[in-house]
Amino acid sequence: MDKKKTLKQQIYSSIFQEIIEGKYLPGDIMSENALVEKFNVSKSPVREALIELCNEQVLRCIPRYGYEVVSLTESDVKNIQEFRQILECSCLEKNWSYFTPEQIAKIEHLAHHSPDDKELNAISQWESNAAFHLALASCYNNKYIYEALKKSINILTRAFAQFYWDKWRKARLPYYDNTQHKLIVKYIKADDKEKALSYLYKDLDKFKRDSY
Known about the structure:
Layout: H1 7-20, E1 29-30, H2 32-39, H3 43-55, E2 59-62, E3 66-69, H4 74-94, H5 101-111, H6 122-138, H7 143-170, H8 179-189, H9 193-210
Helix pairs in contact: 1-3, 2-3, 4-7, 4-9, 5-6, 5-8, 6-7, 8-9
């Protein structure tokens, strides 16, 4: 585990990753005692990680029984995607005048980044897409906006793993198309708000449509 993270953060990340990888399926039950034994730690960091996962609605606490992996619906996915479109497009419009050269350089770098050819699949494409959108959100210097988007992306990651994990893991894409990201940055640099917003909306809408 990553020693730079607290025990709670390490346990949280490990449990979340195992849910994404399908080692825990929707409806599966985790027990605090089993996790304490698995991670060879005290109850406190395990309990703290489980509480955070419950707060994020990844798990549901069932008193005297354990923690159930929450099942998501396609309606959840649709609602989160719509929330993202509203959040991200409105934030870009509101904060249009506040981009710094350093922030633009950061998102431009991510816009031109492509996953390694050996790992070019739907999962790596999703991760690259998420990294770009989170970097764009970080430009607004508002931790609540950033955390709301991060939480939304985490929910979508879990939902897509639940619905499409086998397909995503095995899918081999011919190329990684980050054209929309490049165009968003291009028009931010050109101070063309209307076009930048248009391509941001298209990028979010395309991923929403491709998810079904």
